[in-house]
Amino acid sequence: QTARITVHPSFVVGEIDRRIFGSFVEHLGRAVYTGVFEPGHLTADADGFRGDVIDLTRELGTSLVRYPGGNFVSNYFWEDGVGPVEDRPTRIDLAWRTIEPNTFGTDEFMRWARKADVEPMMAVNLGTRGADAAANLVEYCNVPGGTAWSDRRRANGAEEPYGVKLWCLGNEMDGPWQIGHKTAEDYGKLASQAAQAMRRVDPSIEFVVCGSSSREMPTFGEWERVVLEHTFDDVDYISVHAYYQERDGDRRSFLASAASFEAFMHEVVATADAVAARRHSPKRLKLSVDEWNIWYISEFPGEDNLALLEEPRLIEDVYSGLDAVVAGDLLATLIRNADRVAVACLAQLVNVIAPMLTEPGGDAWKQTTFHPIALTAAHAQGVALDARVEGPTLATDKHGEVAGVSGTVTWDAASGSLVAILVNRTAEPVDAAVEHVGFADVALVEASVIVADDNVRGASSTDAASDLAARGAAAAPRALEGVTTADDVSTVPLLP
Ligand code: AHR
């Protein structure tokens, strides 16, 4: 099989917003407790932040982290998580039915974000609370001082404001599982009111309004339309959440996940632009894909079966080599749509459906999915080019016929770096030719490959940490032999 990917420096899709390389830390399972935060751990600093997790977060290339949820935020009283730790209440987290000690809250997250060198992205509770609590949290975070909540922050040890720029107006409010789930009408009105109140506290902040929890939601499309009719003038981004998994051994459909992801994003963009057209508005909303990943949801017991435990092992998916290839394809697809995707968060960062796992009191290690994300974040810079791909197709039961090879090409004029991210979704080798017409003096610097030669998934609760770490390491990029560059064409032998 052969494929041809054609790019030209004049055909640009858009600037790559570094916030596309974001992630997510929710109070869920062991994401916070024994994930980012474990006082007493061998690598923990004076704040109790695990140094091994911070090191891996940097190596992953994480630019931004969304916090504190997720479903958790929809009944979160943020005031519980600030002030002297001994005064903070222990609560039942209704989303995941676990005990929340509140020993990690807003101030701890901001300190952690600074140490990990990531931009904080905050979500507010629009499930059981409203504009008042949300506006107070903006005041706590962003006002320099001289008001009740900003002075409370200073008294709690943070003299300088945090300057949080990006705010999510609730989480997955279309989902019946969400605490305080609402109709699109009710949510749209509340989100508009909350955004207006929050912006009066800090006019410089930006808002993400909730889109659908997945493309499969029965309300998808209509939800976006109605919500945006209420919030179009108040918000900057609309959220997209998307999780994929291999179901019933249907590997081909799983390998085509990124094609469905791309179609989903285009549908949300089309809906937002239709609302703009009805209003005769030139404004073009962008997407905040603030939850994306592979998640074996069908193996997840659901919120109803959870015991009220502290630090439970929840949703600790162990990924295969095949999962790494699909994760890489999903991230490349976000980059390819850089004209409309401004923010994206791999859900999540550590332990919970995550590219890294930890043991309490023990090691932290990379999962298979870590590798394509770190490799892409390190190399994809500048602008995404309009890469035209011709090649084999892949027939799937779930997504119809999709491109058998996906191609994403980025170009950074400042460093002179041209990067092609190619994914062979088929079961056969493909000889790919990248035609980089119009670039002077292209020379090959590096060619790496991630191979999906295992499709074994495990369980962090039963398998030894060393076995899991070895499985993660097996997907590390290897040197790809046989790549040649001559004149305007590079040829790349893609493995199945
Ligand atoms: O990321 C895990 C969960 O997935 C989040 O809490 C929720 O927003 C989504 O359903």
Please characterize this protein's 3D structure:
With about 500 residues, the protein is α/β, with parallel strands linked by helices. The protein has a single domain (about 15-380), classed as Alpha-Beta Barrel (TIM Barrel), CATH 3.20.20.80. It is about 25% helix and about 25% strand. The chain has helices spanning about 50-60, 105-115, 130-140, 150-155, 185-200, 220-230, 250-255, 255-280, 320-335, 370-380, 465-475, and strands at about 1-5, 10-15, 20-25, 65, 90-95, 100, 120-125, 165-170, 205-210, 235-245, 285-295, 340-345, 355-360, 365, 385, 390, 395, 400-405, 405-410, 415-425, 430-435, 450, 480, 485, 490-495. Strands 3-4-7-8-9-10-11-12 form an eight-stranded parallel barrel, surrounded by six helices. The chain has a five-stranded mixed beta sheet with strand order 16-1-21-25-24, with no helix packed on it. A four-stranded antiparallel beta sheet has the order 2-15-19-20, covered by helices on one side. Helix 9 (about 320-335) links the parallel strand 11 and strand 12 (about 340-345). Helix 6 (about 220-230) crosses helix 8 and helix 9 (about 320-335) runs parallel beside helix 10 (about 370-380). The protein is globular and about 65 Å long. The N and C termini lie close together (about 10 Å). The model has no long low-confidence stretch (mean pLDDT about 95). The structure holds alpha-L-arabinofuranose.
